[in-house]
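Action item from last meeting closed. Structure (319 res):
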């Protein structure tokens, strides 16, 4: 990992990704952008039982949207659903139990869902940062299986359903941490060298941004975007990055601040005036590479990522 990239990124983060960074950016927001009635529109949100996913679900439910919460843990999902319904007074909140690290489960879920439901907006929020190298039952490294492959299968499997509706969108919650990484397409499973969970997560988040760009160019009828929520005080950050959380706690954004741009991309008329495939931070499209960072992939490397994901998807879904 480049020392230069890390240093530049951390300085940038202190200025922009913190609570004060959000407050400075929010002075330029148009409040009317989120003054929308979402009744009749259906939103699928992965990882919706806590953190940014739950905050996003709450904002959408409060505006009348139908919410499909895709979660791994039934107990936590049902508790979150009850809270969202109570606060929003919107009964159209549904729980689906899916392990996003299982290619087969994700594929089977999308097939069943598409037969019985409509989806206008997919919000890929579920993610994990496992700090020890761990394999899924399908033999894949867990961070990659959840963050990249699960997101890829869910998104591509729902594309036919999305193309049937008006104003379809896909929003992927990535991370500014991806700015520290150049994609290493030759070691997607992190089999070489010492395993580093933070680096693996940042690699996955870089892969998500590349996927967003590629899918946007392939499927013009759908508006794709990815975004960085900033440094938010979520259960996932507390669990996966305890030392970072302890040092930065007073500077971290709230979950609602972290969710704001995902909500804006999912619901506002302003968002779809932006070109498809861009990366957003605080409601603005921003660069996907730091200056002089040498983090760009070649078209051949990006193509290899998509080909490899397709192969893993076919293997996993046919097990």
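Sequence:
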């Amino acid at each position: 990992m480049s020392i230069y990239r890390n240093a530049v990124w951390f300085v940038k983060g202190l200025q922009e990704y913190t609570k004060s960074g959000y407050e400075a950016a929010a002075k330029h927001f148009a409040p009317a952008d989120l003054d929308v009635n979402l009744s009749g529109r259906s939103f699928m949100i992965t990882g919706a039982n806590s953190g940014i996913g739950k905050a996003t679900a709450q904002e959408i439910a409060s505006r009348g949207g139908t919410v499909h919460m895709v979660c791994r843990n039934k107990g936590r999902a049902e508790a979150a659903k009850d809270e969202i319904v109570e606060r929003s007074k919107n009964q159209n909140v549904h729980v689906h139990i899916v392990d996003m690290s299982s290619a087969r489960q994700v594929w089977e879920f999308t097939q069943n869902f598409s037969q019985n439901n409509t989806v206008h907006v997919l919000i890929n929020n579920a993610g994990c940062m496992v700090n020890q190298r761990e394999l899924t039952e399908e033999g894949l490294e867990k961070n990659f299986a959840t963050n990249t492959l699960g997101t890829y299968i869910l998104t591509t499997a729902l594309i036919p359903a999305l193309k049937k509706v008006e104003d379809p969108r896909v929003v992927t919650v990535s991370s500014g941490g991806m700015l520290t990484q150049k994609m290493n397409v030759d070691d997607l499973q992190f089999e070489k060298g010492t395993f580093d969970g933070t680096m693996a997560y940042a690699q996955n988040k870089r892969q998500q941004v590349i996927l967003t760009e590629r899918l946007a160019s392939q499927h013009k009828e759908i508006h794709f975007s990815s975004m960085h929520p900033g440094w938010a005080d979520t259960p996932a950050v507390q669990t996966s990055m305890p030392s970072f959380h302890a040092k930065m706690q007073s500077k971290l954004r709230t979950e609602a601040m972290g969710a704001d741009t995902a909500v804006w991309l999912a619901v506002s008329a302003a968002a779809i005036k932006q070109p498809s495939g861009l990366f957003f931070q605080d409601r603005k499209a921003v660069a996907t590479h730091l200056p002089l960072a040498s983090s760009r992939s070649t078209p051949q490397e990006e193509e290899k990522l998509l080909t490899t994901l397709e192969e893993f998807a076919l293997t996993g879904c046919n097990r």
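Note appended to the action item: The longest strand covers residues 66-71.
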